[in-house]
Amino acid sequence: MTSPVRRQRTSGTMERQAYRTRNPLAEFDELINQMGGLIESTVGGVPSTAMPTWIPLADVTETDDSYQVDVELPGMKSKDIDVEVSGQELVISGEIKERERRGILRRSTRRTGRFEYRMLLPGEVNTEGVKAQVSDGVLTVTVPKTEVAKPRHIEITENKSGR
């Protein structure tokens, strides 16, 4: 058996107008700011330059010989990107600076500011052989596996004597 639900009557026109003018993401921004303030008051402040503001999109592919990481960094130049490999950890970081504009910016959805992509590679890697290149807004980092980590194919022979 269901219980009746009491609905609140409002003037529908006023409610619809308020919804159209309200920014639905403003509540999330306010919540994030409140959480940041709570963390700072509890743990202490962290310099804003130390904190990455966003994580770029990436694909990670594994072959027999290496791991390949493709990271979307549109408009970035190689001199503005840092790639570090320490043990099995890969760190890609940098900053996309805000462009100078003339006029009034009416809308912006492009990411700017500090970014950082971190991942722990699943196997042993050869840090000396890491290669990175940027092409068409995609950074490709190739991290070769060590000889120990490479899979070894075992050939199976057939016993013709029946055993």
Radius of gyration equals 26 Å
Shape assignment: extended
Structural class: alpha+beta
What average pLDDT do the residues reach? 80
Helix content: 10-25%
Strand content: 25-35%
Explain what you see.
Strands 1-2-7-6 form a four-stranded antiparallel sheet, with no helix packed on it. 17% of the residues lie in helices and 28% in strands. It is extended. It is an alpha+beta fold. The protein has two helices and seven strands; from the N terminus they run ααβββββββ. It folds into two domains: 12-43; 47-98 and 112-152, Immunoglobulin-like, CATH 2.60.40.790. The protein has helices spanning 12-21, 26-43; strands spanning 58-62, 66-72, 81-86, 89-96, 113-120, 131-135, 138-144. The relative contact order is 0.16.
Summary, kept brief:
The protein is of the alpha+beta class.
Q: Can you tag this structure with a few keywords?
A:
single chain, 163 residues, alpha+beta, Immunoglobulin-like, 4-stranded antiparallel sheet, 3-stranded antiparallel sheet, 2 helices, 7 strands, 28% strand
Ordered list of secondary-structure elements with their pairings:
Blueprint: H1 12-21, H2 26-43, E1 58-62, E2 66-72, E3 81-86, E4 89-96, E5 113-120, E6 131-135, E7 138-144
Antiparallel strand pairs: 1-2, 2-7, 3-4, 4-5, 6-7
